[in-house]
Amino acid sequence: MSATFPSYENPASLIKRSPILFRPAMTFPLSDELLGTFVPIAVYWIYSGIYVMLGDLNQYRLHTKAEEETKNVVSKGTVVKGVLVQQAFQVVVLLLLFTVARSDSGVVLPQPSLPVIILQFFVAMVVVDTWQYFLHRFMHMNKFLYKHIHSKHHSLVVPYAFGSFYNHPLEGLILDTVGGALSFLISGMTPRTAIYFFSFATIMAIEDHCGVWLPGNLLHVFFKNNSAYHDIHHQLYGTKYNFSQPFFITWDKILGTHMPYTLEKRKEGGFEARPIKKMD
Ligand SMILES: [Zn+2]
Ligand SMILES: [Zn+2]
């Protein structure tokens, strides 16, 4: 006896007609949110990797190699591991956040016009700078927070590119992840724009810590926060100054924590950033 089975529609054609219905619940499509999580991490290692490939750059260094070895109290291996741990921590937090806040509509927001994107970029820069200035300064004033959290970042007295995000994971979470989320929400930028913004913020953080002063660096034209400015903050004498990061130096100027400097040629090669104001 032959049984007749109802004829089912080919599942593949159903999926084509209704991709949202058949999207597996536990996987992320290659969304802008996912790119916004991972692209800045790739940018971090690629951009700082370029600085590594450029070599010692003795003619442009802000500290000699010997100083780097004697003043820094952590090895490069420890720094790489520390940054990877912090990035892993951030990925977990962001993916959890996206899982909770994820919309299943599958609608990709259209990009606004270029002037609007530029304005959103600017607003986001101001938000990140403001958030980071006050928290950064507070972490220096509060002895407990400095000792247990922020001193980890300052163990690199002579900063270098891939040490830029060498932070306590809590500092990375509060300053970078929460700061980034606030800048995203307040500026109203789309997740697509955020991929570029977070990547740019990563590049600026590396620029502030790269430890060299390369001639013709266009970013120096637009941003007064740079490797020399932030180098002052990383010196043992400079930790009460130049808290601003990563874009502008406005908060330091407004609140009297700005330490101007001169760039002097060093006889061993390279430059030295020297404070030009008397310090307390
Ligand atoms: Zn600091
Ligand atoms: Zn720093």
Automatic annotation (TrEMBL):
Could you say which enzyme class this protein belongs to?
lyase
Q: Which residues form the Fatty acid hydroxylase domain?
A: 121-257
Listed InterPro entries: Fatty_acid_hydroxylase (IPR006694), Sterol_Desaturase_Related (IPR050307)
Location of the protein in the cell: Endoplasmic reticulum membrane
Question: Which GO MF terms are attached to this record?
Answer: aldehyde oxygenase (deformylating) activity
Looking at the UniProt record for this protein, which Gene Ontology cellular component terms does it annotate, in alphabetical order?
Answer: endoplasmic reticulum membrane
Q: Which reaction does it catalyse?
A: a long-chain fatty aldehyde + 2 NADPH + O2 + H(+) = a long-chain alkane + formate + 2 NADP(+) + H2O
- Which UniProt key words apply to this protein? Endoplasmic reticulum, Lyase, Membrane, Transmembrane, Transmembrane helix
Name of this chain's protein: aldehyde oxygenase (deformylating)
User: What's the Enzyme Commission number for this chain?
Assistant: 4.1.99.5
Q: Where are the transmembrane segments?
A: 34-57, 78-101, 113-135
Q: What is its main location?
A: endoplasmic reticulum
